[in-house]
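ok, trying the design again with the full structure, not the truncated one.
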């Protein structure tokens, strides 16, 4: 088959809903798009450990400490599944990691905001993990097999994360006036950045059309954002939390909640490296990577020696 025929056969497989597996033929551009998106997702999971990890020692009880520790550990696991899945596309994890630590690879904008009080931990669980579920439930049906399978497992864990965040927030929102204030203040600060997680509006999303054609994504950024807003409004109402948007209004015609203008200038600033915590996040990750070099070297050496021994024995 020439390239044109291969492209046609590839698109037909996608249109039929077949999964593309690592050894199958794929257009170079499909491979590149997946590496970009999947590695960005992996970096996000790893950087995402920092804002919550910051509160492990200060969680208000042993139970809350254990839950938060387990959640942060889950995020590390998600990063690892995703790096492994990305490696099936013929790239090395070390290069991917160094691309974001010392280069230009992106990670989710949301992790460049500070966690100022314990209520932020509740809100990250409810809103940030909630937004991630909306996005990743779609990605669990992605055309690339390893990415779809990684997301199925991630979504199961995220669903637990969201429930624990919502439960904690509900408790705080029905607590003392100070606790209620803390809960509302955290929602006020995280609401708009969470809406930005879904990416720029469809009219300014250069990658969406191609990703949708190849069924990596099956919904646009705006469609997912709307679906998230619709769910969150009901969840907020149920626990007496107010969404900080004076333009939020139910639209009888569309059956959706209309919402106000997202501060897109802030989004572009954050993804270009100028958010409230961009520098600190990268500094912390670089420090961990550099100080952990001996662990990676020791692990590689152990694996090398083990293989030598096995080869000798066989
Ligand atoms: N932040 O053409 P577009 C988690 C970039 S972590 C930063 O619409 P696309 C969790 C985009 O990369 C889960 N950059 O792109 C962890 C592109 O730039 P490049 C995080 C963003 O790919 C710990 C440009 O803007 N989830 O759950 O069609 C604790 C134009 O955008 C962002 C994922 O990573 C952003 N928010 O759509 C708790 C999901 N948005 O690369 C929770 C995987 C856009 O061309 N990724 N950009 O230079 C995706 O679903 C999609 O890549 C996006 C963007 C929706 C993010």
């Amino acid at each position: 088959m020439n390239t044109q025929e291969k492209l046609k056969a590839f698109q037909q497989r996608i249109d039929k809903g077949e999964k593309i597996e690592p050894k199958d033929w794929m257009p170079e551009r499909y491979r590149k798009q997946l590496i970009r998106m999947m590695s960005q997702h992996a970096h996000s999971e790893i950087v995402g450990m920092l804002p919550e990890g910051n509160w492990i020692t200060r969680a208000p009880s042993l139970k809350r400490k254990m839950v938060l520790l387990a959640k942060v550990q889950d995020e590390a696991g998600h990063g690892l599944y995703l790096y492994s899945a990305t490696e099936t596309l013929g790239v090395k994890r070390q290069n991917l990691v160094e691309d974001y630590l010392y280069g230009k690879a992106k990670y989710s904008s949301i992790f460049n905001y500070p966690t100022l009080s314990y209520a932020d931990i509740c809100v990250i669980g409810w809103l940030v993990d909630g937004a991630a579920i909306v996005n990743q439930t779609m990605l669990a049906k992605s055309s690339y097999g390893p990415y779809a399978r990684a997301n199925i497992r991630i979504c199961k864990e995220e669903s637990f994360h969201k429930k624990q965040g919502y439960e904690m927030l509900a408790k705080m929102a029905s607590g003392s006036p100070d606790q209620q204030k803390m809960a509302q203040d955290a929602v006020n600060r995280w609401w708009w950045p969470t809406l930005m997680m879904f990416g720029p509006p469809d009219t300014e999303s250069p990658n969406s059309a191609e990703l949708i054609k190849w069924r990596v994504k099956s919904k646009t950024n705006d469609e997912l954002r709307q679906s998230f807003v619709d769910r969150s409004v009901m969840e907020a109402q149920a626990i007496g939390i107010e969404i900080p948007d004076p333009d939020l209004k139910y639209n009888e015609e569309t059956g959706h909640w209309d919402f106000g203008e997202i501060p897109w200038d802030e989004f572009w600033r954050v993804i270009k490296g100028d958010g409230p915590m961009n520098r600190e996040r990268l500094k912390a990750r670089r420090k961990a990577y550099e100080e952990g070099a001996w662990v990676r070297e020791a692990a590689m050496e152990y694996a090398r020696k083990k293989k030598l021994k096995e080869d000798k024995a066989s």
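Keeping the full-length input from now on. The longest strand covers residues 249-251.
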